[in-house]
From TrEMBL:
PANTHER family: ACYL-COA SYNTHETASE, ACYL-COA SYNTHETASE FAMILY MEMBER 3. This is Malonyl-CoA synthase. Residues 30-376 form the AMP-dependent synthetase/ligase domain. CDD domains: MCS (cd05941). Residues 427-502 form the AMP-binding enzyme C-terminal domain. NCBIfam families: PRK07514.1 (NF005702). Belongs to the ATP-dependent AMP-binding enzyme family. It comes from the Bacteria. It comes from Comamonas resistens.
Length: 517
């Protein structure tokens, strides 16, 4: 098998002059910290050498729950270099959630924030993890201390394109998270194709303001910049004013719709603010047409919306330049997610598994070199999510128009997307139903002006029990990642059901539609 370590491809794209700035990291006090391309290379080599020195079995999982930092990105690159499997975890996850990932993925190494070392190391060591390191947002912790004893040169461990590079956990409709296994080949083909399709240019500068534990910030944004040898302006946390102030020094921005909504809320956003920018990209959640139009009016830029998933990385995109496959169409159409990316197959199927013609709504199924290898240690789940002829069932419902543009009109999976984070109602209902005094519950997504959609819980108490919505919310906040906690809880006598006894979530969604209007 040819050498296909993703890191080698990224490294080959670094500029010849390694002294040039690769990342300008904006520190919490607003000061900039500069990293050269050599710093990225040497820093990730030291960590990779540390990982290699541990003599871990091939394909060991390196689970990482740390605040965003350039060093955290180096840890990702180091994991690729060492030939291991990167397993990023949302920093909002609490003990019960982290314990599940550790027991399910059986990582060999866990890296956590110094502040959570106490509980994370206990969980990790109790579950057979051999090594726990810490890495703070301020570059403190044992990971870098240990790595400093290692050399700053490292030859990437040879990998085949089918070897695992990362596992991204994504929740399932049954409530339990599944680890989507992505290979070096999945990541590299997708990144190389996007480089061309989005017209990455020599003088591009990316503003990176997304978290780096999901596909969008970790792969689409980081690979995009590195594979083009382009510098990044790096924000640990999204701050609309601070980001807008740097548009004058950048050319590309990637965000979930909430980021665009928050920038539009600032009256200073205008054509001048965005004059230096080349491309604004949005994805991970549906963008309202109002947001798309307001951005165009205020900045003169037409946002390019694209669609992807943890299991597939990027699938479709509005065109950046004329796409000859679709009659040289180059219009970025609001409300649509554009065309299948080159090499990616996208089809719309009826519930009977038969192909539907353009103009009909059906299930979105996909195929291509970007599609993941399966769910970690869940062969039955993997089999269920693929059709007999090998297409992955996205769980999204869509339509293709006669010009070839795809639009996502809904989801067959019971999923809420809130500010770009996925929340699976079944998981939250499970927690609520276990609370004292609760008979049953239903969690549904309703429109929200900032997050696009948020979860609300509808709760039926046990006979004679007193249940208070706010207390439920407070209890959930102590157990679950904050973004999963329903923003409101309504206590009712019963849930609406159909004749089969199934809860009619649509009726609940309609009932609470306007709560955050
Ligand atoms: C924070 N909160 C959220 C939330 N983010 N609640 C619901 N949904 C969210 N997304 C909670 C906070 O914990 C807090 O709770 C309250 O809401 C207000 O928080 P905030 O201060 O306004 O939030 P902030 O820290 O500013 O974060 C908002 C955000 C962040 C939009 C910047 O959520 C974010 O970075 N989202 C991007 C997610 C992302 O990268 N998705 C890509 C997935 S990849 P309390 O109780 O303390 O008040 C993917 C594939 C693809 O989907 O196609 O790309
Ligand atoms: P995740 O599992 O976190 O990767 O989320 C993937 C899901 O996000 C997809 O299945 C879609 O439902 C949704 N998604 C991603 N991009 C878009 C988009 N541009 N418009 C609408 N939904 C999107």
């Amino acid at each position: 098998m040819p050498q296909a370590n993703l890191f080698s491809a990224l490294r080959a794209a670094f500029p010849t002059d390694l002294k040039k700035i690769a990342v300008e990291a904006i520190e919490p006090d607003g000061q900039s910290l500069y990293y050269s391309w050599a710093d990225l290379d040497h820093g990730s080599a030291r960590i990779a050498n540390l990982l290699v020195s541990l003599n871990l079995p091939e394909g060991s999982r390196i689970a990482v729950q740390v605040e965003k930092s350039v060093e955290a990105m180096m840890l990702y690159l180091a994991t690729l270099r060492a030939g291991h499997v990167f397993l990023p975890l949302n920093t909002a996850y609490q003990a019960a959630e982290v314990e599940y990932f550790i027991t399910n993925a059986e990582p060999a190494v866990v890296v956590c924030d110094p502040g959570s070392f106490g509980w994370v190391s206990k969980l990790a060591f109790n579950n057979g993890v051999g090594h726990v390191y810490t890495l703070g947002a301020d570059r403190t912790g044992t990971l870098l201390e240990r790595a400093a004893h290692h050399g700053d040169e490292q030859q990437p461990v040879p990998r085949a394109s089918d070897d695992l590079a990362a596992i991204l956990y994504t929740s399932g409709t049954t409530g339990r998270s599944k680890g989507a296994m992505l290979t070096h080949g999945n990541l590299l083909t997708n990144a190389a194709m996007l480089k061309v399709y989005w017209g990455w240019q020599e003088d591009d500068v990316l503003i990176h303001a997304l978290p780096i534990f999901h596909v969008h910030g970790l792969f689409v944004a980081i690979h995009g910049a590195l594979l083009n040898g382009s510098p990044m302006i790096w924000f640990a946390k999204f701050d609309p004013q601070a980001v807008m102030a740097r548009f004058k020094d950048a050319t590309v921005f990637m965000g979930v719709p909430t980021l665009y909504v928050r920038m539009l809320a600032d009256a200073r956003l205008d054509r001048d603010t965005a004059a230096h920018m080349r491309l604004f990209i949005s994805g991970s959640a549906p963008m309202l047409i109002e947001t798309f139009r307001a951005w165009k009016t205020r900045t003169g830029h037409t946002i390019l919306e694209r669609y992807g998933m943890s299991e597939t990385i990027m699938l479709t995109s509005n065109p950046y330049a004329p796409d000859p496959r679709y009659g040289n169409e180059d219009e970025r159409r609001g409300g649509t997610v554009g065309f299948p990316l080159p090499g990616v197959g996208v089809r719309i199927q009826g519930d009977d598994g038969k192909a539907l013609p353009a103009g009909e709504i059906g299930n979105i199924e996909v195929q291509g070199p970007n599609v993941f290898k399966g769910y970690w240690r869940m062969p039955e789940k993997t089999a269920e999510e693929f059709t007999a002829d090998g297409w992955f069932k996205t769980g999204d419902v869509g339509i293709q128009d006669d010009r070839g543009y795809f639009t996502i009109v809904g989801r067959s999976k019971d999923l809420i997307i809130s500010g770009g984070y996925n929340v699976y109602p079944a998981e939250i209902e499970g927690f609520i139903n276990d609370l004292a005094g609760v008979d049953e519950s239903a969690v549904v997504g309703v429109p929200h002006p900032d997050f696009g959609e948020v979860g609300v819980a509808v709760i039926v108490p046990r006979k004679g029990a007193q249940v208070e919505g706010q207390k439920i919310i407070d209890t959930l906040k102590a157990q679950l990642a904050n973004f999963k906690v329903p923003k409101r809880c309504y206590v009712v006598d019963s849930l609406p059901r159909n004749t089969m006894g199934k809860v009619q979530k649509k009726l609940l969604r309609d009932r609470y539609q306007k709560e955050f209007a």
